[in-house]
Automatic annotation (TrEMBL):
<dbReference type="InterPro" id="IPR050902">
    <property type="entry name" value="ABC_Transporter_SBP"/>
</dbReference>
<dbReference type="InterPro" id="IPR002491">
    <property type="entry name" value="ABC_transptr_periplasmic_BD"/>
</dbReference>
<dbReference type="Pfam" id="PF01497">
    <property type="entry name" value="Peripla_BP_2"/>
</dbReference>
<protein>
    <submittedName>
        <fullName>Iron complex transport system substrate-binding protein</fullName>
    </submittedName>
</protein>
<comment type="similarity">
    <text>Belongs to the bacterial solute-binding protein 8 family.</text>
</comment>
<feature type="domain" description="Fe/B12 periplasmic-binding">
    <location>
        <begin position="2"/>
        <end position="257"/>
    </location>
</feature>
Length: 268
């Protein structure tokens, strides 16, 4: 089939299923793996060039609602009658469902089921270790610095925090994404700050900004210099690569407990 992905996480789902050779174009932000870097680009994921998308005559477009603003892509796909599927996972289990959905649409259900088995097996192994962790640090995740956005309860990072032997300090908020304030974060006083600014390269993330916020010098995370600058693609894209980020985080927080966990076999 002639596939188009207009979201980085969807591109990574295709790679996980071993069907990246069926991709004929992707959005500008799809940057992994190297094998897809020479594909035609359709623009940023919030402003896809639909004229070009339509001209490529795809059999299926893998669309997304994972970022606010993507609705207009869906509207255009519907208006132009371009075949598409909409993915919007909020949990690790939702990612499994999306893999199976793609497998069914492409007639590769058996392959999808096997890849899901590998994915779920690794999650189960991590889960068993997580159950043994008694001292669980509180994590404050920051997706964007101004205004401040952080994941709430209905998001995979709350699940990943728990699996990594920690707790998301905003897990009590019944939202996927929370616009919060400096005062609210200060009141919650996290043990660790995790910076994963969406779309910002690792080298451009500035932990110094966090340290200068009013009252934040008294946060446990700042006092103890427990500020992690994390690779945004491994934490902010709902694809199986989240497990690579999870393992990295778990080994940072609890190196002894998770030392024997590896992602070998996760990727084709």
């Amino acid at each position: 089939m002639r596939l188009i992905s207009i979201c980085p996480s969807n591109t990574e789902l295709c790679v996980f299923l071993g069907i990246e050779n069926q991709l004929i174009a992707v959005d500008d932000f799809s940057d992994w793996p190297a094998s897809i870097m020479n594909l035609p680009r359709l623009g940023p994921d919030l402003s896809i060039d639909m004229d070009l998308t339509e001209s490529l005559k795809p059999d299926l477009v893998l669309a997304s609602l994972s970022v606010p603003g993507m609705e207009k892509n869906i509207e255009e796909l519907q208006k132009r009658n371009i075949p598409h599927v909409i993915l919007n996972p909020q949990s690790l289990a939702d990612i499994s469902e999306d893999l199976l959905k793609i497998g069914r649409l492409l007639g590769i259900e058996r392959t999808a089921a096997e890849r899901i088995r590998v994915y779920q097996s690794l999650i189960n192994s991590i889960k068993e270790i997580s159950k043994t962790i008694t001292e669980r640090p509180s994590l404050y995740w920051e997706w964007w610095p101004k205004p401040i956005f952080t994941p709430g309860k209905i998001n995979w990072l709350t699940e990943i925090s728990r699996l990594a032997g920690a707790e998301n300090v905003f897990q009590d908020v019944e939202l996927a994404s929370v616009q919060t304030s400096e005062a609210d974060v200060a009141e919650r006083n996290p043990d660790v700050i995790c910076l994963a600014w969406v779309g910002v390269p690792l080298k451009k993330v500035q932990p110094g900004i966090v340290k200068k916020r009013p009252g934040w010098e008294n946060l446990k995370a700042v006092k103890n210099n427990h500020i992690l600058v994390l690779e945004e693609p491994l934490y902010c894209r709902p694809s199986p690569r989240l497990l690579n980020g999870l393992i990295n985080l778990a080994k940072t927080l609890h190196p002894e407990a998770y030392r024997d966990i590896h992602s070998d076999g996760l990727w084709l």
